[in-house]
Design a protein that fits this description.
- The complex is a heterodimer of chains A (350) and B (542).
- With 350 residues, chain A is mainly α.
- Chain A is built from 9 helices and 5 strands, in the order αβαββββααααααα.
- Chain A has helices at 9-42, 54-60, 104-131, 139-161, 167-185, 200-236, 251-283, 292-311, 319-342, and strands spanning 44-47, 64-67, 80-84, 87-91, 99-102.
- In chain A, helix 8 (292-311) runs antiparallel to helix 9 (319-342).
- Chain B has helices spanning 10-29, 38-49, 52-71, 79-88, 92-98, 108-137, 162-172, 191-217, 463-482, 515-541; strands spanning 152-158, 177-180, 184-189, 219-226, 230-232, 240-243, 256-266, 276-286, 294-299, 304-306, 309-325, 331-336, 340-341, 349-355, 362-370, 373-375, 381-383, 392-400, 420-425, 434-436, 443-459, 486-494, 500-508.
- Chain B starts with 9 loop residues before the first helix and ends with a helix.
- The chains are: A mainly alpha (350), B alpha+beta (542).
């Protein structure tokens, strides 16, 4: 078959439209980042409204719970007693109240970030249509898709768990990634090599991208956690803390959030590795051949497994486990950038 | 290995932690200074090995140990690269080899790490599995005396009889294991979490066993098959063969096939011109010599499965065809010769033609095949496209002794010219062109070319078991990370004034939001049901 690529004008203009969208996406994310930073720096500290906690929910349903007003008999600080739905209720251990920096600009930031998310999505879809294939066949496309997943995970956390305060920490790596993608990884829209021409690309690569996005957000939350943890230690020592570090929510909450994203990402990453093995079995004749990419996904898997174990082991929780999670993220990033550029292997299609 | 994978399973973890510390403390403080017997040492070693700390350290070693394998060339991946490394670093390479660093993943030290890890894992998971089995069969734990100490507790009064309250409670707790005590109902659910945990770790053990079995019972071989040629699955048909220890070379699966045609398409123009678009090999095959003939279209992602083995298409190449006549004019050679390509972009290929039966003196040629010959700006003849748009061959001829009878193993892609004399270079030959050798040594004709398929045969009986184990691991992982074990108690006691005091309490064994709200919903539903029921009862009475 004589295949003249990009012969049709329509596909060509769609491809350039897609290239325009990526610039718009970066601009939207950068504006969102700027506004989130303003919120973090100049906002007022307000109690975090977390609507999936019971007392707040009960209060919302036209009943009253005087949380914290009546301290538990046994000196328990976090017992809430009250009446909800005409039932006498006591709830213990609802967790500490957390405060976050809030500013009207934060809502605008969230709206701009959501717009960026839609632009990002449109970019991927139009590129897929222009190339007439699944739109993740090279590094540039991975970076764009990982950004989409990372921002999507953040938007979910922001709307579902009121975790808007993460915006700055998620958008910093996303804008950096996209910048790197456009500057150094950019590849013109085009077809992929025969080995990548399989429905497994939709399964294996999609899973890897979703997991990478969630790991990235978890990493952002982990860094925030470490900063907040240090702030709390300084405060406990009587030091005055100012600036953005002082406005962070409690470290416990951040730790929980970071952990939850790893919980979500880890099984998907496991699945991505296994799906990759099945595909490798079909395409290359072996399901595991210690190709550098395979080695580093295995290392990433092992490090995150260690994180999950460490976080549940007395003496390893807290900052120690957090550093393991960051090591896992470092392995993930190295697998993405380092392996493709430093080593030659079957996955080298940069 | 998973001592406490439970997400925030605080009560259990702290209990275990303090218990472990307490027993350790006791053994240290009790009695005279400890003098451990051999058995004592063994128990100490076993306890250390199966501890979480050790497992974490082993996990890190497993990760760190894998790193050199991605940085240094590995014999399992590419022997050629290892050889190149030896050439580039002649001093360093033998040292690295002593440490098995060219074969990390089958090295003794790497095996030591993962075997220790798996022993540690077994030592932890088996007792845990037994304990879990007992827990699943046991009655849910007895209702605590003070329900209002639970993370969630609620209390209301009802006109319903205590018995009715407990009946209704049982009706509501449909997805729980329910146990009725004297004045209360104890319920629990979420055993699947621990089941998933045990399944995940046992599946990892099974995966390791499957990998080991595959390495023993499987084999892998590579070969090049020129269009029109056949292949029978016997040891001599392979160019390279890598069997497991337990493989009998003489009893490979008796299938055979013929590559009827090999079809390669390249993108012709544009920025991606020259990139391969698809490879297809048309096969006819028989599962056994007496089996019927079948067809299969072999593509990169479409291997042929036959009798437990897989045949893969790895790539393609060109096999130029030559006819050689000797000094007497007899045809002494007439066949295609597979050439190896230097690079994917131009498919400039190198090969060697050896003619041992040419007469008094043997003939040898080293040749370059250019699929699309053109002149470079420097005036050199190069190939500018991988497809055969204008195939050209240039030869360098030798006569003398090929050295094939010396007993030394020879590569078919290399000409050993120590005992040979050069006959100079040929002009550029197009298909059909003949080069008449100097001094009447004969002729060589470039008669045409065929495509060949670069194939791999893989037989790994552990493929499916490994896939099953890996899938089980994922399912177990999902269960252990997302199932939330919970306990609920409902107690109903008469308050002495003709009403019933109902207490509802809930305990979630994992951190995570929303559980108190769930328990509260349960309490409200119980209250509402009891209300409905008592109004119906009073209505019927009246």
């Amino acid at each position: 078959m004589t295949h003249a690529f990009a012969a049709t004008a329509a596909a060509g203009s769609l491809a350039s439209f897609s290239d325009g969208l990526i610039v718009a996406t970066i601009v939207a994310y950068a504006v969102g980042l700027f506004l989130f930073a303003i919120e973090a720096a100049y906002g007022r500290r307000e109690p975090l409204r977390s609507d999936d906690r019971f007392p707040a929910k009960a209060a919302a349903s036209s009943s009253t719970v005087d949380k914290g007003a009546d301290k538990g008999d046994d000196g328990d600080d976090f017992t809430a007693r009250g009446v909800a739905d005409d039932i006498a209720v006591s709830v213990r251990d609802t967790g500490p109240q957390s405060y976050v920096s809030t500013h009207a600009v934060g809502r605008v930031a969230l709206a701009v970030t959501s717009l960026g998310f839609l632009l990002n999505l449109a970019q991927i879809v139009s590129r897929g249509i222009a190339a007439d294939r699944w739109p993740w066949g090279n590094m540039f496309e991975f970076v764009v898709a990982i950004s989409l997943c990372g921002v999507g995970a953040f938007l979910y956390a922001a709307f579902r768990h009121n975790a808007r305060y993460l915006g700055m920490f998620v958008l910093i790596p996303v804008v950096l990634l996209l910048g790197i993608g456009v500057k150094w990884l950019y590849t013109e829209t085009g077809p992929v090599i025969p080995a990548l021409d399989s429905y497994w690309i939709a399964i294996h690569v999609t899973a890897a991208i979703i997991a990478s996005g969630a790991f990235t957000v978890s990493g952002a939350a982990t860094v925030t956690y470490l900063v907040a943890y240090r702030t709390e230690i300084k405060r406990a020592a009587g030091e005055r803390v100012t600036g953005i570090a002082a406005a962070l929510p409690s470290s416990g909450l951040l730790d929980q959030l970071a952990h939850r994203f790893v919980l979500f990402a880890f099984p998907i990453w496991t699945f991505a590795v296994i799906a990759g093995a099945v595909w490798a079995d079909e395409a290359w004749g072996r399901f595991w051949g210690w190709d550098p990419k395979e080695v580093w996904s295995f290392i990433t898997w092992v490090v995150y497994a260690a994180y999950l174990h460490a976080r549940a082991t007395a003496g390893w929780r807290g900052p120690k486990a957090a550093w393991i999670a960051l090591a896992g993220l470092a392995c993930l990033l190295f697998n993405f950038f380092g392996v493709n550029y430093l080593f030659s292997g079957l996955h080298s299609y940069a | 290995m998973d001592r406490q994978l439970h997400d925030g399973d605080i009560a259990m973890r702290d209990l275990d932690g303090t218990k472990g510390a307490a027993t350790a403390g006791e053994s240290e403080t009790a009695g005279p200074p400890p003098r451990l017997s051999a058995l004592g040492w063994a128990r100490w070693a076993w306890r250390v090995l199966t501890s979480m700390r050790t497992a974490l350290i082993l996990l890190f070693l497993l990760a760190v140990g894998a790193i050199p394998g991605s940085m240094l060339p590995q014999t399992t991946v590419s022997e050629e690269q290892v050889r190149d490394f030896y050439v580039d670093h002649p001093d360093l390479a033998p040292w690295l080899d002593h440490l098995s660093l060219f074969d990390v993943y089958s090295s003794p030290w790497y095996a030591a790490i993962y075997l220790l890890l798996f022993v540690s894992l077994t030592g932890c998971v088996i007792p845990r599995a037994l304990a879990h089995y007992r827990a699943m069969r046991a009655r849910p734990p007895r209702t605590p005396r003070n329900l209002d100490r639970m993370p969630y507790s609620a209390r209301f009064t009802s006109t319903a009889e205590p018995r009715t309250v407990l009946d209704e409670a049982r009706g509501l707790l449909t997805r729980y294991r329910v146990d009725t005590r004297e004045d209360s109902v104890a319920a629990e659910r979420g055993h699947l979490r621990e089941t998933g945990n045990v399944v995940f770790h046992l599946a990892l053990l099974a995966l390791l066993l499957a990998l080991a079995a595959g390495a023993f019972l499987g084999y892998r071989g590579n070969m090049l098959v020129v269009e029109g040629d056949g292949f029978a699955n016997t040891l001599p048909s392979y160019d390279s063969f890598d069997p497991g220890i337990a493989v009998n070379d003489n009893e490979l699966q008796p299938f055979s096939f013929t590559v009827e045609s090999m079809d390669v398409e390249f993108i012709q123009e544009g920025n991606f011109g020259g990139q391969a678009e698809s490879y297809t090999a048309d096969l006819t095959y028989r599962e056994a010599p007496d089996a019927p003939e079948e067809r299969h279209e072999l593509e990169v992602n479409e291997p042929l499965s036959v009798d437990g083995a897989q045949v893969y298409l790895l790539g393609h190449g060109y096999a130029p065809e030559f006819r050689v006549t000797n000094a007497e004019g007899d045809v002494v050679f007439d066949q295609p010769v597979p050439f190896l390509s230097r690079d994917e972009a131009t498919f400039t290929s190198d090969g060697v033609v050896k003619v041992p039966d040419a007469g008094d003196e043997q003939l040898g040629f080293s040749a370059v095949f250019l699929p699309s010959a053109s002149e470079s700006p420097e005036g050199e003849l190069v190939s500018d496209f991988p497809a055969p748009r204008d195939p050209v061959v240039t030869l360098e001829g030798y006569k003398g002794d090929l050295g094939m009878d010396s007993g030394r193993a020879q590569s078919v892609y290399q000409l050993y010219t120590e005992d040979m004399e050069s006959m100079g270079e040929s002009p550029a030959l197009s298909p059909g062109d003949t080069w008449t050798l100097p001094d009447g040594a004969g002729t060589i004709t470039f008669t045409g070319y065929s495509d060949y398929a670069s194939l791999q045969v893989n037989s790994d009986p552990a493929r499916l078991p490994a896939l099953v184990a890996a899938s089980a691991a994922v399912l177990g992982l999902v269960a252990t990370l997302f199932v939330r074990p919970r306990r609920v108690w409902v107690r109903a006691r008469p308050d002495g004034n003709g009403r019933t005091v109902v207490e509802v309490a809930g305990l979630s064994k994992t951190e995570g939001a929303g559980t108190a709200a769930d328990f509260h919903t349960l309490a409200v539903r119980l209250r509402d049901r009891l209300r409905e029921r008592t109004t119906v009862d009073t209505a019927t009475k009246e």
